[in-house]
Design goal:
Blueprint lengths: L2 H7 L3 H14 L4 H17 L3 H21 L4 H56 L3 H17 L7 H50 L7 H10 L11 H17 L2 H13 L6
Helix pairs in contact: 1-2, 2-3, 3-4, 3-5, 4-5, 5-6, 5-7, 7-8, 7-9, 8-10
């Protein structure tokens, strides 16, 4: 038994491959060494679980055959041997390629199915977006849309899926813009209603006890939480008209020091953001 055979028998394939390659390099035209070494390469190419490793050993078998073809003393027997191994290597390589194609096709079908599922969920999120009534609900839907979009494998979208995705993008853009406008309008209305209620509170509180608010500390406590608590830039014209009415009334009832204090308060008071 040769050293090569001993390593094969002990299932030491790494050592056997090293010995086989070394022996063939030293005896490039030896048929027996060539056959044993190539048989080992093809056996590994047929049986290993890793497709990547099987491809590697099939390629090595092809290189080994080419090396043998260049260095062997050609005869009818050797040529027949070469043809035999060409055919065998071709069969092994085709088997590996077929399995590779099958795996790739399965992966593609799986990715396509996952993309279809994501697109269906994007349609569902569109329905949620249409029902969003406030900024928090809108933000929650937008976060989910972003998560779903990142889960799509855009490289493997089919034409039909791409059409759905592009259409959804257009609809989302229009719907988000519309929703943001609706929510902003709703927020502005709520802000103005709150502001008008506060202005009214300031008016009636001051009118009910004008003497109390001649004290600047009391005046500040009142107007800082009511009259001057709102950003004029967010107020509707109607709200501003009422604001000016209340402001003018209070201003007219104050002495000169009170008027100055009220003016300063209007500048210094912090406004609600809405």
């Amino acid at each position: 038994m040769t050293l090569f055979d001993e390593y094969i028998a002990s299932n030491n394939m790494t050592g056997a491959l090293l010995i086989g390659r070394n022996s063939l390099n030293k005896n490039p035209g030896d048929k027996e060494i060539f056959c044993k070494y190539t048989d080992l390469l093809l056996s590994l190419a047929e049986k290993l679980p890793s497709l990547k490793e099987r491809k590697n050993f099939a390629n090595q078998a092809g290189v080994t055959l080419a090396f043998f073809e260049e260095n062997a003393e050609l005869s009818t027997e050797v040529i027949e041997l070469i043809m035999k191994y060409r055919k065998r290597i071709g069969i092994v390589a085709e088997s590996i390629d077929a399995e590779d194609r099958s795996i790739m096709q399965a992966q593609y079908e799986n990715t396509k199915a996952e993309n279809t599922d994501v697109i269906k969920k994007l349609y569902q999120e569109k329905e949620k977006l249409e029902k969003a009534n406030n900024q928090n609900e809108l933000d929650a839907v937008l976060i989910e849309i972003g998560t779903l979009d990142s889960a799509l494998d855009h490289e493997y979208l089919t034409d039909e899926q791409k059409n759905h995705y592009d259409m959804l993008n257009r609809e989302y853009t229009e719907l988000i813009s519309k929703k943001m406008g609706e929510i902003e309008k709703k927020n502005n209305i709520a802000y103005n209603k709150d502001a008008v209620d506060s202005f009214n509170k300031a008016f009636h509180s001051f009118k009910a006890d004008e003497g109390k608010y001649k004290n600047q500390s009391q005046l500040f406590n009142l107007v800082s939480t009511t009259l001057f608590a709102y950003d004029a830039g967010k107020l509707f014209n109607e709200s501003l008209i009422y604001y000016n009415h209340v402001y003018s009334y209070i201003f007219s009832k104050l002495d000169d020091d009170g008027k100055l204090a009220l003016t300063r308060f209007s500048i210094e008071c912090e406004r609600k953001l809405g």
